[in-house]
Amino acid sequence: MGVIPFRRTDQPVSQPSLWSLSKKLLRAVYRSYIFRVTVQGILTLWVVTTCTFYMIRKMPNNPIEVKIDEFQTKQNLTYEEARSKVAGLFDYDPDAPFIEQYTDYMGNLVQGDLGRSITTGRTPVSQQIAKYLPWTLFAVGLGLLISFVIGMIVGAAMAYWRGTVFDNVMTAFASISYGIPDFVIAFMILLIGGIQLELFQVGDYIGSVDPEIKAGLNPEYIRSLLQHVLLPVTTYVLASVGGWMLTMKSSTISTLGEDYITVAHARGLSQRRILFGYVGRNAMLPLMTRLAISVGFVLSGSIIIEYIFIYPGLGKYLFEMTGKRDYTTIQGIFLVTSAAVVISNILADLLYGVLDPRVRVGSK
Amino acid sequence: MGFLIAVATIPGLIIGILCGLVPLGIGLRYQQLSWGIVGLVLCALAGFSFSLIGGFILLVLTTAVVISYAFVDREDPFTSRASIEAVNFEESQLEFLMRQMAALGRTIRQSVRALIRNKAGFLGFLGILFFVGISVFGPLFVEYDGDTHVERLQPGARTLFQKPSSEFILGLDWKGRDIFSHMVHGGQNLIITSIEAGLIATLVAVVVGAMAAMIGGVVDQILSAIANFILTIPQFPLLLVLASILSFSNRFYLALLFAALSWPALMRAVRAQVLSLRERDYVQAAVALDLGLPHIIIREVLPNLMSYIVVNMIFSIRSAMYYIVGLVFLGLVPLEEPDWGVMIYVGRQQGAIFNSDGASMILSPVIAIALFQLSLILFTRSLEEVFNPRLRSGL
């Protein structure tokens, strides 16, 4: 005969323990969209950092060799002389084990420190990025904004008056703008507008702002700034406006065919209200996501365009630093640009939920 | 070298003519002489420019067209109107082949009609043909001018640059070389590398995307994660770094590198499409009929994806060209003359931008690239109609 275990029935069988509660909480957190996406984003950035860390150190030559080469050719030194000269300049040991370099870098990175630039006198990388980033942000951001707004308006107009001469002309223009690569436009502006037709003095419009003019909100500086940003922005706008126009046109056309537009017409709403309140808002939805995504790529900008116009942006700086093999700077720029893409992708997702209630309902 | 060869060669011409004998012979046999001759000419041209690959592809295509004119479907037991006893369901291998070829030929005829019908698309097609033709056949007529010509220095001029004149229709470059000859000889490498890059990228994207969607589960998650990861890194900076690691002695590796970086976008789209197609009624019906995976993929899923894939392939050729010219222009790829990208790079280095005599050295390749890319974009409109019959319902 076994002993029947005695069970007291005046107490609940199991009290929710702290463990199960926290488990529930964890599950709720894990299920929340923002948490998951953030973890994914951080993971992605970590992988990007690790990969680029490995890759850029695999590039032939290191910063010291590049500098030695430069000294050898410029000052006619022997290899040994150049080497001893360079050794004092740099705070970088190419013979340190890879793993050690990596853990050092990651340790600093976790504390928010991007390290110091190897080749440019040990300035912090974050400071360097802060110096070049605004230029790229300004030019590409302005270009994106202008082309988005123009694309929106003209694209909607093309859809509304589709089949007319206006539509045909604009579609042809959009195809050309969409089809031609941006550096082609840049060269055409420079060579045809600047050199052949002599519409403007090329020298005044390329390069960076005259260093003699004091930075600040004085009219001279603003004028010089706008002058130097004009050509890159024009190029960006011309190269990207066609894509926005075509997308907006097709989006508007599909919206115009929706039932609720017909109903709105039947209800006798004014033409203007239908256009702005019903068609425009709905047609813009898919474009807003694309806008948010392209904002992420603003930082990586266009290396080629900045290079052609000698514009002091992040892209041109990255190119120069790649040539000098400035590992920490390349690394920092890659991290910042990838982070921008990750964040803007998350924002695009969230934004879509906010703008379009149908998506929110559907996801539940 | 990659897998595409586009040089006009005499052996290629012979291969082409040999290939062309097949449609010609079949045309003679079935009294379709004119179409047989068209087939011969097309095969000879394709063989001449692309040797075995071009000759063989056109051999199949033109033979199919010739057969489609000669072959009448009356003998097909499945469409026959005779009573069930009178129909002969036995079909020899040859008859089966003929029926299939005739069907292919009819499809080709419809496609060509769709291609010509869309004016913008046809213009793009002609543009592509023009550039391919120039870089394939041009070298036969225009000799490459690779040496420095100091004797062409104009009196009073400080550089060897020269504006376009009647003797040199695109002017002279910084070494006094004929820019026109560089234009003719320099496009081939670029165009072929771009096409190879686009083809590989598309192939990888389609295979990986379809695999992810069909297998699902962990495989899908891993493949999608890789794709998302590559999409996060800004492409051109990455290409910049990678290009300096792998110094390319061979342009084909550049094409491979481009493909490795650019498949994810199309892969995600293909995956989404296959996922949605998988749930369609006709695919479900094919699954229920147990028609087998190859049949389902080739006959049910692929035709619906085809227009999408082909259009994206063109886009990817286009962006491959953009990236390759960009890399050459930044001086990250070993410079091999003659090449359009190298002309831009060297022209910039030698001050052609600020020298109005030398503008032609940069403008010529730049305009050629622009026109080629524009042709590609226009051509996609035709391709959409060719591969998506719903768009040409009015035909």
Structure, described:
The complex is a heterodimer of chains A (364) and B (395). Chain A contains 16 helices and no strands. Chain A is mainly alpha-helical and 364 residues long. Chain A has a domain at 127-323: Orthogonal Bundle (MetI-like fold). With 395 residues, chain B is mainly α. Helices cover 71% and strands 0% of the residues of chain B. The longest helix of chain B is centred in the N-terminal third of the chain and has 38 residues, at 33-70. The model of chain B has no long low-confidence stretch (mean pLDDT 80).
Look at the helices and sheets of chain B and give the structural class: mainly alpha
List the secondary-structure elements of chain A in sequence, H or E: HHHHHHHHHHHHHHHH
Q: Classify the helix fraction of chain A into a percent range.
A: over 70%
Strand content of chain B: under 5%
What separation lies between the terminal Cα atoms of chain A?
Answer: 56 Å
State the helix count of chain A: 16
Low-pLDDT residue spans of chain A? none
Q: Which two chains have the most extensive interface, and how many residues on each?
A: A-B, 45 and 40 residues
How many strands, which pairing sense, and closed or not: the largest β-sheet of chain A? none
Which architecture of the domain at 127-323 in chain A per CATH?
Orthogonal Bundle
User: What name does the CATH topology of the domain at 127-323 in chain A carry?
Assistant: MetI-like fold
Number of strands of chain B: 0
Q: Briefly note the structural class of the backbone of chain A.
A: mainly alpha
Secondary-structure element series of chain B: HHHHHHHHHHHH
Count helical runs of chain B. 12
Quick overview:
The complex is a heterodimer of chains A (364) and B (395). Chain A contains 16 helices and no strands.
